[in-house]
Write the structure tokens for this entry.
Amino acid sequence: MDKAQPETHVSVGVFLRAILGGGGAYVAWRLALVVLMILAASALLPLGPVALQEIVDHFARHAAAGPTLFAAVFLYVFSQAVSRLFDALRVLIYAQSERRILTTLNHRVFAHVLRLPFHLHSTRRGGAISQIRENGAHGTETVLQHVVFIVLPVLTQIAVTSVILVRLDQPVFLLVLCIAVIGYAMCSAYFLSRMVPAATAASAAQVQSSAVMNDCIANYETIKFFSAETFVARQVFPNLVNTERRWLDFYRNHTLDGIITAILFSTCIGATIVLGVRRLDIGALTIGQFVLVNTYMLQMIQPMELLGYATREVIRGWGMARGMFQLLEEKTENDATSSPRVQEMRDLSLAAHNSRGGAEKTTIPATLAFCAVSSSYGAEREGLRNVTFTVPAAKTLGVVGPSGSGKTTLVRLLMRLVEPYEGSILLDGVPTCDLPLDVVRRAIAVVPQETMLFNDSIRYNIAFANPEASEEEIRRAARVAHLDEFIDSLAEGYETRVGERGVKLSGGERQRVSIARAALKRPRVYVFDEATSSMDSTTEKQIMENLREISRLHTTVIIAHRLSTVVLADEIIVLDKGSICERGTHVQLLHKNGRYSQLWSAQHAADRIAP
């Protein structure tokens, strides 16, 4: 289960800025036109009963047909026709605005999520973020549609009707209408206070259940290995039940609100008819005015009931959209301020990234240094403690140590996925915290232990490091990783799709794609994090020869569990519990008979035992 995320206040202003900011002038003038059409249609609609009153009174007086009658008929027909015409046109105009708002908003959320810090991604389920975005888009659409098509027209009609009733000089009916509106407002306010938290809790429960299901689907292979389909289905079911219960809480309040509103409005309609009949009987009301008043009450009751429905839907939509806007309020990764050498570093990085030509074009290697670096993953777990080392340009550093010693933390610090709380990391003498993130990350290529590929072609996955790379550059990168012969043996060659997370390739093939991708990036520093862990002995020897070739020309950090991969490194550091316990060359460390020597002996003993 995910830990509950801290509550973040999301104001209506944040919502409006996100909506109005999505699409610019294209959206703004269309929304303005829609509002004008709504106001015009809503103002014209109440004029219909006025014309109907004149028609009824005309015939009640047995007067001859004349200009006044024809004008009343025209006004009645015109008000109804224009109102419905505007209703039809505003749907199309609004749809253009709505689609652009949702397109822009979805893209903004997606781009924002990609820029969120590592710790936020590591503490949330991927499925939860997807469901938050999906809920947010649906909730935003719900809020916009009900505000534009119901709330705004009904409020306009109430205002116009109130003016007409005042001019009709029948205060008793205006009083009945006011009682209905005030009673409705009080009822809505009460249930609003109950439905907002209910909708928010229901949306959060839906996000949680979706996250759990997506997590299980992503690990379907493990589930099948252990024949755990039934067990996992049972584990997921309580989350779905909780979602159902939360939504039922919302709709229970929704129904009570509807019942009380129906009773209130039915009472007001009854009162209007009784008062109308009595005033008609004593001659204080004409037949046309009686028709006018009752038509208004009937014409107002249904829209106000719709207003109640719209209010409940807006609350539900807001509850669903709230999580997305909270996500947008999360701070993204901190980029660096400028420093005297930032532009120089950026130029070197871009030159490497955009380089073209033959293999003779090489990248200028960088000097890398950790200076008394300490980091942690919160109070419960420390990462590195006072780690200091330097990797001169075009030299190789080997990093070894048992699991949990801090090797992975070192990579995350280097790529600024996490930041140290003490010390600094220098790239050519410049602290990486003073460099823009794109400069740091373009200068360094990481070949991770677990390679995750996109469900696309091999070409796409290699070219991901440099989408503008030429065909020759892609093929050269494949040769660097000894991947070219394998690709040529495939029926579709470079266009072969690798499946979800690269499932159609073996572990070694995925790793070689990762190495090819890093080579195409033309970095100033290579970091190989257990780069040969998924390969057979033959392939490992080929890659090791390749790594040695790369190490001669580039600054290289090789993080290894198998010590044979670092024996030729210019320096080796041994990490243990986040600190450097030994350092030196392979020969020097063996002569010390310390931690490195113990690891070396243990691995050789294991290799002799292995068949």
Q: What stands out?
A: The longest helix spans residues 229-281. The chain has two domains: 12-329, 342-609. Residues 163 and 174 are 9 Å apart (CA to CA).
